Structure formats: structure tokens, C-alpha cells
Amino acid sequence: MSKLKPPISGQLEEEFKAQSPMMEVWSMFCRNITAMIGLVIVLIVLFAAIFGPTLYPGDPFEMVWAPFSRPGEEGYLLGTDYLGRDLTTLLVHGARVSILIGLSAALLTVLIGITVGAVAGYYKGWVEELLMRITEFFQVLPTLLFSMVIVALFGASLPMITFAIGVVSWPPVARVTRAEFLRIRELEYVTAARASGVSNFKIIFRTILPNALPPIIVQAALMVGSAILFEAGLSFLGLTDPNVVSWGQIIGSNRQYILDSSYTVTIPGLAIFITVLAISLVGDGLNDALNPKLRKR
Amino acid sequence: MPALLKVENLRIELNTRDGISPVIDNLSLELYPGETLSFVGESGCGKSMTALAIMGLLPDKVGRVAGGRILFNGENLATASNERLNEIRGNDISMIFQEPMTSLNPVYSIGEQIAEVLRRHQALSNKAAWSKAIELLDAVRIPDPQSRVSDYPHQMSGGQRQRVMIAIALACEPKILIADEPTTALDVTVQAQIFDLMRDLGRQSGSAIILITHDMGAVAEMAEHMIVMYAGRKAESGPVQKVIESPRHPYTQGLINCVPHLLAELTEERPQLAEIDGIVPSLKDFGRDECLFASRCEFADTLCRSQRPPGFDFGDDQIAACWRAGEIH
Asked: Maximum CA pair distance of chain B?
């Protein structure tokens, strides 16, 4: 064989070099094949969301051909929908909205969740009681129904949909954050930080939070997936901005023709399915990489 | 010379399931600049509580200063605001903890953790704090500080981590360094190195040291003054040499007898290790008006069981809180 392996000494040196915790997590993540597949798919979807509209310019709502042209038949890769609109263009433009809502709703979720959980877990006492009762109040509300009410009351604009999703899905994040804070606040390095004069604010956000992040990051990754699903659910029910296209909205508007032209519903459905699955795989990979118990395997 | 730290009739109460109990009962002490004072006693007799009270770090809602004053340079720390305490902590008074394995934050490099204290209290720039951190690592005798400064805690051994803790504690040249059983979790060989280091650096920076330990050998080596604590009360106090040579309180005698001796010639019959029978009374009994050591004391009589002994002066600052201290010696 002409292929020679590189000398092993170089590899070893790299292996034993001092690694920051983040680098360690990354190299751990890279070893997880399913997680890497998920990451590649997520990156492709992100690429489509960012550059897709430039590659497929034009108004996605414009009628380009006869309705119900089957995928690939009349020169349109994924065919046309019931109004004769190009499904490919719809899908690519819809990716942007779906991903945007997924990311920003997850960000909102994490911001609310971390703040509530951190304050409750750090201060304990009546502060914790109050905040956790509020969290439980939000937890027992039927999420889809509550966000439908918000969107129905305040209008179906993108920021309002994001807000509606974020405001109903933060309780799990708050609970995880609180649990981590309750555990970490009793550790000796927190006492040591207090003994060297660190203020409460800095202890919460600089001393404890970075150590509490791993499970929160995993939660946040899964939140992105569930926010995309949530948005799809809302727009399937017609609670969406009719002027922007999203994957759920494509399904929703074509749902009457599901028996005759199932591809108009199946294709955006597959897009949602694959994207959410890929995000879950990434979240799962992060879980393994960030969990110190699994790290040494 | 005025005392740097003066604790007057300190009483700390802890909320327990059985009600309120005084974990520290009427404790007074004085600490002078550059001096080393040692707290000795079994687990659960209030040594660490005293340290936490001085730092203002008593556990929230569980412990509180119920009486007395903690005067640092004339300022009462027991009533100081949290903001004021944050200025003092880590700058004028700093602390080393028992468990070096867990008292460093795992997500920051050790250099960052040393530099942070310097930036906070001395307003140093990032760069200046970082190079001071390297100097400090060198001072605590960590080899190759230039490259180890960016290491993370998990890459260091227990002894090295405790050295880093010392570097953090001494970064701002505090007036008082409180060391809460700094070597308990370390190998015997490393213990001596850590004590040497603390003594040398303490001398260089002129810091007074409060050493909390149950290692009589460390006390003899390190401290000038010692306080023997039992069940939240001062059992005996005085200059180390005097107390160790002629202990007056039966508890002090017991503690000194408990130090095992190494024998050169081992025979079949191993010498029995000395012990003090019984255990420290439970927290709910701490407030009683009696000698709390009486249940474990071979000299105890009815007086000991009915009235709390005051401190009897035996000259040279040696004070023992025992009714029969005069006869026992």
C-alpha cells in the first residue's frame, strides 16, 4: 500500500496538549458520528435559509406554472402547489422563516428560563417559592392553546409568534437551571468566590452559570427543534403571518389537497421532519459530549 | 500595638430542628499584625463557624451572629453591609479552604482565577493582572509558571491546587489569612510543604494567619497563640508553647495525648493509641449551664455538671475554662 500513516508522535503530542474545556467538548462531539451527520444537515438547512433566497430569487408567492404540476415533470424540481407556485422557491424561502423563528424563540425561551431559574436557585427562600409557583403556572397551561390565544389576540406577526412560542416553553429550562444552581451553589468554589469578595450578580453569571450550562445547552438545542414544530403547528392552523412563507404555512395552505396531490404536503413535512431530527441529533451529541460521566468512555 | 482583629463575646446561633442552639458561645480573641493564631478542636466544635463569621459568610437563614462584635481595624464586621464586606473579602481578609479539589472553579484557567481577584480589588489591567498571576504562581513554587498559568484546575494535583488557592488568597497581600484545615485533604509529604509556604509568604507579606486545624503538630510548628475549642466554647487559650507544655484543661491534655508517636522498635505488643472517650454533645445541648466536656471527663464532679466554668487565668495569657484546672496539672 502506498498510503502511509503519519508518524504517531505528532498525533500524541496533540492529544496531550492542554485543552480548554470547550475544545475538549468539541473533540468529543466530533467523535460522535450521528451527531456529526445531524450537524451537517443543520448546516445545509442554515445555508439554504441564508443563501437560498439569493439562489432562488423572486417572489415565492408568484404563480409560475399550472397548479399541481408533479415534482420534476414540467421543469420544476419539486413541482407546484394548488396556486401554481414553485414549491422549491417556497421551501427555500420558508426555511429562512422557520429557522429564524426556531432560533429566536429558543433564545427567548433560554433567556427567560435561565433568568428565572438562576435567581430562584441562587437566592432560595421566598424568591424561589414565588418564581417556581409562577413557573408551575405556565407549565400547567396547555401550551398550544395558550400560544394560539396570544397570536389570536395580538395578531399573527412574526415577533408575536416568536413571543407566543417563547413564553409558553420556558418552564423546563427554568427548572433545569434552578436544579443546577441549587447543586452548584453549595460547592466549595462558590464559597471561595464569595470569600474573595465577588458580588452576587457576578457569582450567578460568572461563577455558577458557566458550570450550569451543559444541560441548558442541550435543552436549548432541543428547544430550537420544538419551536420549529410549534410554528408549523400554529401556521397549519392558519395562525401565521399570511405575507411570509414558512414550512408550516405551506402545509397548512395545501392541506385540502392532501389526497390528490400529497407531495405538496409531504415535501415541506419532510423538510420539517429532517431538520428537527437533525437538531435533535445535535442536541443528543452535545449531551454526550458535555456529560462528564460519558466523556471517559 | 492595637489588635488587628478583635472578637468580643461572639455568639453565633444556628437554627436546627430542635430549635436555636449557640454554635459559638461567648468567644473572645485578639489577633495582632503578623501573628499566627491557631484554632484546635474536634469536628463540629465551631472552628469553621468562627472563620465563616469573620468573613461574613455564615449560611443564609440558618446561622446568624446573635451577640458580640467582630472588630477589624475598629470596624464591626458583624453589622457591616454586604457591599462593604465584598470590599474587605479577598482584599484585607482572605481564606483558604479544606478541599483544594473542589475550591477552584473548573471552567476558568488558574491564571484567570488569580487575575480576577487582582482586577477586582487592585484595579489592575488585564495584562498587569496576568503577569502578576505568573509571579504569584512562581512565589507558591509551581514549576514552569509561564506555561502552567493557562492550565485548568483538573490538570493539577491536589497539592498544586492548594498552592493556587494560596496564590489567590495572598494575591492582594491581605492583612489576615484564614486557613480552614488547609492540609487535611493532602498527602503528609505535601502538608509540610504547604505549611512552609504559608509561613514564608505570611512573613513576607506581613499577614496575620488564623490557622484552623486538628493537627497538634502543625500548631506547634506554625502558631504563636492557640485557642482550644470545645462544643462552641473556648476550653483553653494561650501561647502555644505554654499550652502544649502544661495544658490545664483535661480536653487539651486529651488532644495532646492523641497525637500518635512513632516508635523506632516495633514489638509484638503495639502501644495503644490514646483516645478521648465519648463524642461532642449534640447541638441542642450546646447552651446548657454546665461544663459541656463533663460527660467525657474523668475529673468531673457535681460542680462541673451544674455550672458553666469561667476562664481561670494561669499567667502568661494562659486561660482555661475548667473548674478543676488548678488541681489537675
From this structure: 67
Task: Note the pLDDT tens digit of each residue in B137-150.
Answer: 988 888 899 989 98
CA dist., res. B257 & res. B254, Å (int): 5
Residue type, B11: R
At A240, which CATH number?
A: 1.10.3720.10
**Which residue(s) pair with A211 in the sheet?**
none
Contact B90 A211 (CB under 8 A): no
Go through chain B and tell me how many residues it has. 329
For residue A282, give the amino acid letter: V
The residue segments making up the domain with residue A175 are 48-295
For residue A18, is it within any domain?
A: no
What CA–CA distance (Å, rounded) separates A45 from A26? 21
User: Is the per-residue pLDDT at A19 higher than 70?
Assistant: no
Best residue in A183, A189, A203 for a mutation probing chain B (most B CBs within 10 Å): A189
Instruction: Cell 464559597: give the residue.
Output: A191
Q: How many CB atoms are located within 10 Å of the residue B296 CB?
A: 17
Give the pTM.
0.81
Instruction: Judge whether A57 is closer than 8 Å to chain B, CB to CB.
Output: no
Asked whether residue A3 is domain-assigned, the answer is: no
B151 at interface of A, judged by CB pairs closer than 8 A: yes
**Residue A173: predicted pLDDT:** 93
CB-closest option in A18, A189, A211 to B103: A189
DSSP calls for B5-73: EEEEEEEEEEEETTEEEEEEEEEEEEE-TT-EEEEE--TTSSHHHHHHHHHT-PPTTTEEEEEEEEEET
| Residue A12 or residue B183, greater confidence | B183
- Residues 6 or more apart whose Cβ sits within 8 Å of residue A190: A184, A203, A207, A208
Which of B57, B90, B55 minimizes the C-alpha distance to B169? B90
| Average pLDDT score, chain A | 82
- Residue A32 scores a pLDDT above 70: yes
Q: Which helix (DSSP H) or strand (DSSP E) does residue B225 occupy?
A: strand B225-230
Distance of CA B138 to the CA centre of its chain: 26
User: What dihedral do alpha carbons B85, B91, B96, B101 form, nearest 10°?
Assistant: 100
CA nearest to A186 within chain B: B59
Q: HSE on the CB side for B280, CA within 13 Å?
A: 15
Length, in residues, of chain A: 297
Phi and psi at A165, nearest 5°, equal -70, -45
Distance CA A237, CA B284 (A): 64
Q: Give all strands of the β-sheet with B225-230 in edge-to-edge order.
A: B93-96, B176-180, B208-213, B36-40, B225-230, B233-239, B319-320, B312-313
Distances (CA, A) of B156 to B110, B136, B138: 10, 16, 15
pLDDT of the residue at B157: 86
Smallest CA-to-CA distance from B104 within B113, B95, B117 is with B113
What mean pLDDT is predicted for residues A80-85?
A: 74
Instruction: For residue A148, tell me if it sits in a domain.
Output: yes
CA B235 to chain CA mean position, Å:
16
Evaluate whether residue A249 is within a structural domain. yes
Domain count, chain A: 1
| Rounded CA separation A257/A236 (Å) | 14
* Candidate from B99, B106, B168 with C-beta closest to A196: B168
